[in-house]
């Protein structure tokens, strides 16, 4: 058995010397060589012509005359060309329509990687998406530049009023500048401050500005999605995302020798860092609901502070009221209950003193009473009481629950504005 490369047909006819098969008389091939696909490589070559057809048989195909006129292919080529152009035009039109419907609009840009590839100039999003909200709000956000520092703010009127934090402009003097999301800048000046509430108003020397839309901070709930805008660590035009983590989180903060600030804040886990201060906290509807103001950090110093998912914003209802006071009168009214308080020991804000003609006294409260709730919110100490009182506007009526000795009672207090 071999692989067949030197195969020989079995001998059926006399063989010539050397073992080669003898072809039949008149032919160098064996009888059925024309029908055998496996030719003997040692057989001599020969041209075998088919026998002439007998007269009256089927006619052979005519041989083309090389001198005969040839058929023109011009019409065929024109048809192919027109078909290609038509197909290309239809395909391009359909591609453009599908691209536009899919939310992408492309313009002429630098082509990389071959012809027909263009860089998108803009991307459209459904108005209900967070990307669309960010695009709408961003022009109303400004970066506030003061001597040696940077903060954030947002425009609240077309004629240039903007809200920021008091601690952003603290020590900045009367003049400063702001930069907009498009990279342009404008000078600004300080209008007024409310240090204990950490709100300040500045006036930008430019008109026709896009004012942000106000929301209702009393209508938000834990779990609502929010966006934080600003310039964290001097990275301008930054947007971060999170949820409302808690409401009425009371905080007392302040630097040595400076004012003590009180917050009944909106807590969020949106990433907020130094430089975000004064920027807006915005709902999924694109409405500002708070002013980013404070972060909680594990760092021991301000330079070590950073986002750990605990950020706090002043409710916009409170910030808007204070800002309106500053714009109208140059200063803000401070809401008071007409009493001073300390920790209650067993929980609550113990009143150390009560002003004789103040709101607390008018409601029947006395020194030594321990306030346990204000407007339904539990109180643990004096910080809770001051922060929650200042969240309300002067003239607001709030319900309080308190202990006097072993007895519990409740009262309605009409808050007032500080006369100082």
Structure description:
The protein is α+β, with helices and mostly antiparallel strands. Among the domains are: 68 residues, Beta Barrel (Thrombin, subunit H); 112 residues, Trypsin-like serine proteases (Thrombin, subunit H, Beta Barrel); 83 residues, Pdz3 Domain. Helix content is 16%, strand content 31%. It contains 6 helices and 22 strands. It has a 6-stranded antiparallel barrel. A hairpin with a 5-residue loop joins β4 and β5. The protein is elongated and about 115 Å long. InterPro entries: PDZ, PDZ_sf, Peptidase_S1_PA, Peptidase_S1C. This is PDZ domain-containing protein. It comes from Actinoplanes ianthinogenes. Keywords: Hydrolase, Membrane, Protease, Transmembrane, Transmembrane helix.
